[in-house]
């Protein structure tokens, strides 16, 4: 990731993936025409796409491989359909049990598949709302990045996606161990071995994304979950904030304001090292109980992020403090990971007790196992959400009253639906 031309964020990557998917769907189009279309299409992040396509031969090979992988993922869904648009999945295949998250675009529901009795977190988005905010490219892309091609033990998996005339559905792994910071708040701080374990799992997920030229960038407390065994799952139940502002693409924030990297705050160019800054913030908060530059006064906090060295109280080991200082370097070219990315973190002395092979194989037993009795156990979710009633409209979204705006919305997401190979799925 030393190549700074490759400044793809997680969100931008999503945009590109959605184009690739559309390409696969429309096989009639030749690759060159497709490239042409990509580069000329005014609605897409032209700059990023062009950069992505013109970096070098190697990158183009990557695209082709991605294409093949996506293609086979799609094809294996059925003998003839190249896309899972024809997938049989529909809203009424699930019982909707609880609301587990809510945002401006829609909500996340706990659902149980009627036939298999498996639990999923289903994110339901209103097309109308998305179109009004001109966010469809990000949504398409979110689905695409979550495809099976992006698969890692500490990243949430997308099992299916499908759509009705007015809604989009993402069927995600259900993760019910609670937010990492929910547990942190209860315990105030984590001792070093526990903090090291979480930081290592997060780092390995970030390193994996970087190897795919994806910057996660949205690392923030609410995106870091624990599964029922106590392993980290990075998720993205919220929506990517990129492009929400009318004119800016750089004015995007790395999660909560406390985690803003100096370069993001100053609207300068950023790269993969922004994720290592955020990891530094997470680790600092785990060890000290507060974000590194915290102040109740936001202006003062921003000033601290830009100007002040993080306060390192003595209660943390030298190796821990050294790592924090290396990750929280304000100049990103001096930050740990700027040269060799994840490899630099792996060999840092703070992580010397970690066997990285075992970690990724989930062979390191988490010290803390969330107290959940099973997949229906929602004790770690915010009761504010879980007590909301589930409206029946989720299942009745194919209403007969098709207004013009719904009709317009209905065709705005071609190629959205997705199903994995049959052997993993519902029968
Ligand atoms: C972006 O929008 C803000 C306010 O909405 C405005 O102040 C600023 O000048 C705009 N920037 C550009 C580059 O158009
Ligand atoms: C300091 O660390 C010890 C163990 O390493 C822990 O028990 C104690 O709670 C910590 N104190 C503070 C103020 O963080
Ligand atoms: C960051 O460090 C590089 C290399 O030492 C230097 O050229 C650059 O000016 C620094 N950037 C800032 C904003 O200090």
Keywords summarizing the entry:
ATP binding, Transferase(Phosphotransferase), domain 1, Phosphorylase Kinase, domain 1, alpha+beta, 427 residues, 37% helix, 3 domains, single chain, two-stranded antiparallel ribbon, protein serine/threonine kinase activity, disordered C terminus, Serine/threonine-protein kinase Sgk1, 7 strands, globular, binds 2-acetamido-2-deoxy-beta-D-glucopyranose
Write the layout of secondary structure elements.
Blueprint: H1 10-25, H2 31-40, H3 46-54, H4 57-75, E1 94-102, E2 106-113, E3 119-126, H5 127-132, H6 136-145, E4 158-163, E5 167-173, H7 180-187, H8 192-211, E6 224-226, E7 232-234, H9 262-265, H10 273-288, H11 298-307, H12 318-327, H13 342-346, H14 356-360, H15 383-386, H16 404-410
Antiparallel strand pairs: 1-2, 2-3, 3-5, 4-5, 6-7
This protein binds 2-acetamido-2-deoxy-beta-D-glucopyranose (3 copies).
One 2-acetamido-2-deoxy-beta-D-glucopyranose binds at residues 331, 333-334.
Protein described:
The protein has 427 residues and is α+β, with helices and mostly antiparallel strands. It has a 5-stranded antiparallel β-sheet with strand order 1-2-3-5-4. The chain is globular, with a radius of gyration of 21 Å. The structure holds 2-acetamido-2-deoxy-beta-D-glucopyranose (3 copies).
């Amino acid at each position: 990731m030393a190549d700074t031309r490759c400044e793809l964020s997680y969100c931008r990557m999503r945009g590109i993936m959605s184009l690739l998917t559309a390409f696969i769907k429309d096989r009639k189009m030749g690759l060159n025409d497709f490239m042409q279309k990509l580069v000329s299409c005014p609605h897409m992040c032209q700059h990023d796409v062009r950069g992505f396509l013109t970096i070098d031969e190697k990158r183009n090979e990557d695209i082709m491989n991605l294409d093949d992988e996506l293609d086979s993922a799609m094809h294996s869904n059925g003998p003839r359909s190249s896309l899972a648009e024809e997938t049989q999945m529909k809203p009424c295949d699930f019982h909707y049990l609880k609301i587990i998250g809510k945002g401006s675009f829609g909500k996340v529901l706990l659902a149980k598949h009627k036939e298999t009795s498996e639990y999923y977190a289903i994110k339901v988005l209103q097309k109308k709302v998305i179109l009004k905010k001109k966010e469809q490219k990000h949504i398409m892309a979110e689905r695409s990045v979550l495809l099976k091609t992006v698969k890692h033990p500490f990243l949430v998996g997308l099992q299916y996606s499908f759509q009705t005339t007015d809604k989009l559905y993402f069927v995600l792994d259900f993760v019910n161990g609670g937010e990492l910071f929910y547990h942190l708040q209860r315990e105030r701080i984590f001792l070093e071995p526990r903090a090291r374990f979480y930081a290592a799992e997060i780092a390995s997920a970030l390193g994996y994304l970087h190897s795919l030229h994806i910057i996660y960038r949205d690392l923030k407390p609410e995106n870091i979950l624990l599964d029922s065994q106590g392993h980290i799952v990075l998720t993205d139940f919220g929506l990517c904030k990129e492009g929400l502002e009318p004119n800016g693409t750089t004015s995007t924030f790395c999660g909560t304001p406390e985690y803003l990297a100096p370069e993001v705050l100053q609207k300068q160019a950023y790269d993969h090292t922004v994720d290592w800054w955020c990891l530094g913030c997470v680790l600092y908060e785990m060890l000290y109980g507060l974000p590194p530059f915290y102040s109740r006064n936001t202006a003062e906090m921003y000033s601290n992020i830009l100007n002040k060295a993080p306060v390192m109280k003595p209660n943390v080991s030298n190796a821990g403090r050294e790592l924090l200082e290396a990750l929280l370097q304000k100049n990103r070219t001096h930050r740990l990971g700027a040269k060799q990315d994840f490899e630099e973190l792996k060999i840092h002395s703070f992580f010397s007790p970690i066997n990285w092979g075992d970690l990724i194989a989930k062979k390191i037993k988490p010290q803390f196992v969330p107290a959940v009795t099973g997949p229906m156990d929602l004790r770690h979710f915010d009761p504010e959400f879980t007590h909301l009633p589930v409206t029946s409209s989720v299942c009745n979204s194919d209403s007969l009253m098709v207004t013009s705006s719904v009709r317009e919305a209905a065709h705005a997401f071609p190629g959205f639906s997705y199903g994995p190979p049959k052997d993993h799925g519902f029968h």
